[in-house]
Write a structure and sequence with these properties.
Catalytic activity: L-threonylcarbamoyladenylate + adenosine(37) in tRNA = N(6)-L-threonylcarbamoyladenosine(37) in tRNA + AMP + H(+)
Low-confidence stretches: none
Structural class: alpha/beta
CATH topology of the largest domain: Nucleotidyltransferase, domain 5
Bound molecules: adenosine-5'-triphosphate, magnesium ion, fe (iii) ion
CATH superfamily of the largest domain: ATPase, nucleotide binding domain
Cofactor: Fe(2+)
Family: Belongs to the KAE1 / TsaD family.
Mean pLDDT: 97
CATH class of the largest domain: Alpha Beta
Strand order of the largest sheet: 3-2-1-4-5
Shape: globular
Distance between the termini: 21 Å
EC number: 2.3.1.234
Largest sheet: 5 strands, mixed
GO molecular function, one term: tRNA N(6)-L-threonylcarbamoyladenine synthase activity
Number of strands: 10
Number of domains: 2
Order of helices and strands: EEEHHEHEHEEEHHHHEHEH
């Protein structure tokens, strides 16, 4: 069977085709960064309208890349949530309509399950059970994964998500939206140790996170000045070092307390090289193997939706007809494929 994946939860339109035998056979992405950049953040109404314009042309591109027609599509997976309601509704409406027109099953997929399964698309996929650090624009989750749909949340952010902290810090430093990758580039210019920010919540037991205090520390440091390039780079470096250290401490703790020996790093912030290196050294010291998606599949994409949906559609899962989204949807409500 070939599954069509449709991702429209935020500011990327992602489309992909995943086949049983050949795996990922086509994927396309349209990023709305240029649309939202001048507003300094995602404007939900503009996001929805742009998804409407992009989805069908990207599906056509994927089909022609794979040398297929719509007849080849055996199932459709779309992002049901979490995400922006209007943006999700576009994906849901198109998936439902196509499923009706092509007479094939449709399934709404959990966006964070798709992020955490993204490394399954790589040549050396992680083995279950694994520990997943999910760090994205809207989420910071440490999850014990026994199998698909078997998730135990060990820790999460009590305030800002990791990506949000990167984006807000970048904004404070005058970097354009979306700030995460720009902040990483600026941090490369900064000297290690010239400034130091707190490692939030690492001095007490547990696996939860908090990033809003770190943001305040950055704000105070920026106000103290001086307002020059060297100082901005030092702030970026000290912020990133604090985040990486915080995750390293909590991941080490989680590996030790669970005894799990595989670590997955996924979500947009997982593209950060300093974070990957920091966690690779922790894992190596603990005798754990690390798996990450390729850089393009850390941030939002259609391939991860096609894959997650394919696994569940193959187990016989499908939705009753109707447009249905879940802008808020706890990950641990999910069940293993076919159990729903
Ligand atoms: P969610 O998945 O929680 O719904 P989202 O889909 O908006 O949120 P992603 O697309 O997974 O999030 O990731 C986007 C986030 O990742 C942004 O906050 C962005 O700044 C951050 N990010 C991307 N690349 C990097 C990087 N190299 N370093 C740090 N942060 C990064
Ligand atoms: Mg995005
Ligand atoms: Fe995402």
């Amino acid at each position: 069977m070939i599954t069509l994946g449709i991702e429209t939860s935020c500011d990327e339109t992602g489309i992909a085709l995943y086949a049983d035998d050949a795996g990922l056979i086509a994927h396309r992405l349209h990023s709305q960064v240029a649309t939202h950049a001048r507003y300094g953040g995602v404007v939900p109404e503009l996001a929805s309208r742009d998804h409407i314009r992009r989805v069908l042309p990207l599906i056509r591109d994927c089909l022609s890349e794979a040398g297929l027609t719509t007849e080849a599509i055996g199932g459709i997976a779309y992002t049901r949530g979490p995400g922006l309601a209007g943006a999700l509704l576009v994906g849901s409406a198109i998936a439902e309509s196509l499923g009706w027109a092509l007479d094939c099953p449709v399934l709404g997929v959990h966006h964070m399950e798709a992020h955490l399964l993204a490394p399954m698309l790589e040549p050396d996929p992680p083995a279950f059970p694994f520990l997943a650090l999910l760090v994205s624009g809207g989420h910071t989750l440490l999850v014990q994964v026994a199998g698909i749909g078997r998730y135990r949340i060990l820790g999460e952010s009590l305030d800002d998500a990791a990506g949000e902290a990167f984006d807000k810090t970048a904004k404070l430093l005058g970097l354009p939206y979306p700030g995460g990758p720009q902040l990483e580039a600026l941090a490369r210019e900064g000297e290690a140790g010239s400034l130091r920010f707190p490692r939030p919540m690492t001095d007490r037991p547990g696996l939860d996170f908090s990033f809003s205090g770190l943001k305040t520390a950055v704000l105070n440091s920026v106000r103290e000045g001086p307002d020059d390039d060297a100082r901005r780079a030092a702030v970026a470096r000290a912020f990133q070092d604090a985040v990486v250290d915080t995750f390293a401490i909590k991941v080490r703790r989680a590996l030790r307390s669970t005894g799990v020996r595989h670590l997955v790093i996924a979500g947009g912030v997982g593209a950060n090289q300093a974070l990957r290196h920091g966690l690779e050294s922790v894992a190596a010291a603990e005798g754990a193997a690390v798996a990450c998606p390729r850089l393009a599949f850390c941030t939002d994409n259609g391939a991860m939706i096609a894959y997650a949906g394919h696994c569940r559609l193959m187990a016989g899962e499908r939705d009753a007809p109707g447009i249905d989204v879940r802008p808020r949807w706890p990950l641990d409500e999910l069940l293993p494929p076919g159990d729903a």
